[in-house]
Amino acid sequence: MELEDLKKEYNRLQNKYGSKNLDSIFFGGQSKNPNVMFVFMNPTGKNIASSKEWNGIKAPWVGTKNIWKLFYKIHLLDQNVFFKIQSIKASEWTEEFALEVYENVIKHNYFITNLGKCTQEDARPLNDSVYLKYLKLLKKEIEIVNPKKIVLFGNQVSSIVLDEKISVSEVRKREFKKKINKKEYVFYAVYYPVGNGIFNMDKAIEDLNYIIFDKKN
Question: Which of 137, 149, 162, 213 has the fewest Cβ atoms within 10 Å of its own Cβ atom?
């Protein structure tokens, strides 16, 4: 099975749980044995790639700014790409620029996805029951991509994927090991760094530097 094979099911779930006016957002980055897979919650209409008129990559965080600050600050995004992201409006992202950003993600050897691929009009919270519909598919993604480490953002995503109650503040920098189809993967739960969690960005940066680069200071 390939990643492309999952998109049909993600589109079906978009029709059931997402906005009928928007497309599902899938994933992007280094899809073969990356150093890290980053797993966020679910996309919103702020991602301009969710527009039905968008013919480019349907990847996370296209047309947004704050998450790219995180990747830049942990040295996973080149300065010229970061500065361009910060200098343009969402409407000024082109399909070609989105591809350039994700080519830079590939260069830095990581993969970005969401647990839920159902795009909502806004950042309304999703019930656990919706995310659970995507869990088996995320596990397939993990098998296909085969990352060295997996970072889960926020309490809800971490709890669902790890199948235990997680409070990120209590498990900072802690390694979790979980088997998927007989292979053991390494997971970490990290503060959600954007939206309502923007005030936790510095903590997320500290933990990610430790997790990815083993910077213990």
Answer: 213
**Residue 69, SS3 per DSSP:** helix
Q: Which domains does the chain have, with CATH numbers?
A: 3-213 (3.40.470.10)
pLDDT in tens, 127-145: 999 999 999 999 999 999 9
pLDDT given for residue 215 in this prediction: 55
Give residue for tokens 């029709």. Answer: 15
pTM of the model as a whole? 0.96
Q: Residue for token digits 């589109």?
A: 11
8 Å CB contact between 37 and 145: yes
Pairing of strands 149-153, 183-190: parallel
Take residue 31 and report the two structure tokens written for it. Answer: 């899809």
Q: In what order do the strands lie in the sheet with 110-114?
A: 27-29, 110-114, 36-40, 149-153, 183-190, 176-180
Distance CA 147, CA 105 (A): 14
Supply 180's token pair: 């998927």
**For residues 113 and 40, what is the distance between their CA atoms, to the nearest angstrom?**
6
DSSP state of 213: H
